[in-house]
């Protein structure tokens, strides 16, 4: 049962001190959160994050759009709820938001920063697309009197993502159980015409969700080429290779009306299990593609133990995205953490000659319980023996729980990265969908490995994000000791280690 909305019109405050509550990842003040929605950055440099939100319970349902703002994508201020369901039978499902700088909609005759939200209204019988406009920069919205703007009489038609293309708006939207992404166009955000569609791309699962079609800048040898490639992102759930939810991407050609992928390869955006429904920010600088994903999986999100702290679900770290070409495998999404400088705290360890060494880093005195580590290997021509490897483990000294990972530079599994959350006791032992181990293989040896460990989530980035993984974990006791090392590396190899603790972005919440 939905509570009266007037009780929820003020900013909702949360307790961010819980043992599982991440300190550098966004999580809702209370209640349940899933997909990011309506992301944009305004002309004042304020980033706006909306999200699927149930403010009254700890499971999915009663969907609103929650709202938070930030100046650096890490320190967030919780804002009042932005979009409310029109009645008790309807949910405000996923969608996007755009800055209507040219006033194409007619809602903003005297401003260039009006915001239009485009979203799905869901009832048991039908899913229709609606819009709402904001004249105060995205804090409050007025639903359009002419809603719905698209109604095809389907209950599997959702998650519109809208972008500007030269002289018109473009929407991609999921015909979920048809495995089809529809492409619509509009001059005014009110009247939409079907233009084309693409279907049966990649891994099908049981349904398509949360498409994005955005231009992604291209890098070669670590430098920008000045080129951009339109890329279609599709989230599937359930039916991912590891179970539940995942996200695919398809670089291709787009002429403003139709999209053609460059090839037929199915590329996964993440090699672990907890990264879904990423959305890209509108209003970023030319040549910049910034995203945030939901760091969870539908197979177990409604039963995670964070409910004991009054909240469920987090977002991934914000990420900068590029495309590059890898040896043999071709196009790859490079997804790296957005500028970490606002959260980097004191250096806990630094070694410019970290060859065949192991070091222990006790971060129990770090108030955030969150750390960052990296190793860099500038010599890509090294010849590695069978035993050459990098490994790390973060553990709880008393309970002996741990989360582990590593990278094999030599031997039959050369080029493999791996993660293991199986030795944690807070959740998963009785859940058949809680996979313990994840891995990925690459053709050439890694040049860099970064990791962020944040109380109950680990994100790993290989070669500046050419491969990335997002993995939740829940230990009975806090993990406060990092053991990290390399072994079997050839003489003359140059390896640099860096470990920092991270600021809590919620310290004053």
From TrEMBL:
InterPro entries: ConA-like_dom_sf, Glyco_hydro_32, Glyco_hydro_32_AS, Glyco_hydro_32_C, Glyco_hydro_32_N, Glyco_hydro_beta-prop_sf. GO terms for cellular component: fungal-type vacuole. It comes from the Eukaryota. SUPFAM superfamilies: Arabinanase/levansucrase/invertase, Concanavalin A-like lectins/glucanases. It holds the Pfam family Glyco_hydro_32N. SMART domains: Glyco_32. CDD domains: GH32_Inu-like. Residues 364-487 form the Glycosyl hydrolase family 32 C-terminal domain. Keywords: Glycosidase, Hydrolase. One of its GO terms (biological process) is sucrose catabolic process. Residues 25-323 form the Glycosyl hydrolase family 32 N-terminal domain. PROSITE patterns: GLYCOSYL_HYDROL_F32. GO terms for molecular function: sucrose alpha-glucosidase activity. PANTHER family: EXOINULINASE INUD (AFU_ORTHOLOGUE AFUA_5G00480), INVERTASE-RELATED. Belongs to the glycosyl hydrolase 32 family. This is Glycosyl hydrolase. It comes from Kockovaella imperatae.
């Amino acid at each position: 049962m939905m509570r009266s909305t007037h009780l929820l019109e003020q900013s909702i405050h949360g307790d961010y001190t819980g043992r599982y509550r991440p300190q550098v990842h966004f999580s809702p003040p209370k209640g349940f959160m899933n997909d990011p929605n309506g992301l944009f950055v305004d002309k004042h440099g304020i980033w706006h994050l909306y999200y699927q939100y149930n403010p009254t319970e700890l499971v999915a349902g009663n969907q609103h759009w929650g709202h938070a703002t930030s100046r650096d994508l890490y320190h967030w201020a919780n804002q009042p709820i932005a979009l409310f369901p029109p009645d008790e039978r309807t949910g405000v499902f996923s969608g996007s938001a755009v800055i209507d700088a040219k006033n194409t909609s007619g809602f903003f005759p005297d401003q260039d920063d009006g915001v239009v939200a485009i979203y799905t209204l869901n009832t048991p019988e039908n899913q229709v697309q609606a819009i709402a406009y904001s004249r105060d920069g995205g804090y409050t919205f007025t639903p359009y009197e002419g809603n719905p703007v698209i109604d095809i009489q389907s209950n599997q038609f959702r998650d519109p993502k809208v972008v500007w293309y030269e002289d018109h708006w473009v929407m991609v939207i999921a015909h979920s159980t048809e495995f089809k992404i529809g492409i619509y166009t509009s001059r005014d955000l009110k009247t939409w015409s079907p233009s084309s569609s693409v279907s049966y791309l990649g891994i099908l699962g049981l349904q398509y969700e949360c498409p994005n079609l955005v231009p992604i800048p291209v890098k070669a040898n670590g430098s920008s080429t000045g080129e951009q490639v339109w890329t279609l992102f599709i989230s599937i759930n359930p039916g991912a290779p590891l179970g539940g939810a995942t996200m695919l991407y398809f670089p291709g050609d787009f002429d403003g009306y139709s999209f053609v992928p460059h090839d037929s390869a199915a590329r996964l955006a993440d090699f672990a299990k907890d990264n879904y429904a990423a959305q890209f920010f509108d209003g970023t600088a030319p040549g910049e593609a910034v995203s945030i994903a939901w760091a969870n999986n539908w197979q177990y999100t409604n039963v995670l133990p964070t409910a004991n702290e009054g909240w469920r679900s987090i977002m991934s770290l914000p990420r900068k995205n590029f495309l590059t070409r890898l040896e043999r495998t071709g196009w790859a999404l490079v997804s790296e953490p957005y500028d970490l400088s606002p959260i980097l705290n004191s250096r806990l360890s630094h070694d410019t000659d970290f060859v065949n060494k192991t070091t222990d880093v006790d971060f129990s005195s770090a108030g955030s319980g969150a750390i960052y580590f990296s190793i860099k290997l500038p010599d890509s021509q090294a010849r590695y023996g069978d035993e050459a490897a990098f490994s790390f483990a973060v553990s709880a000294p008393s309970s002996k729980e741990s989360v582990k990972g590593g990278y094999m530079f030599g031997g039959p599994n050369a080029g493999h990265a791996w993660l293991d959350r199986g030795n944690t006791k807070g959740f998963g032992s009785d859940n058949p969908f809680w996979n313990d181990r994840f891995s990925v293989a690459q053709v050439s040896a890694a040049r860099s490995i970064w990791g962020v460990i944040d109380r109950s989530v680990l994100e790993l980035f290989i070669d500046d994000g050419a491969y990335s993984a997002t993995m939740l974990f829940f230990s009975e006791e806090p993990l406060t000791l990092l053991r990290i090392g390399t072994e079997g590396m050839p003489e003359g190899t140059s390896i640099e280690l860096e470990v920092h603790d991270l600021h809590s972005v919620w310290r004053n919440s």
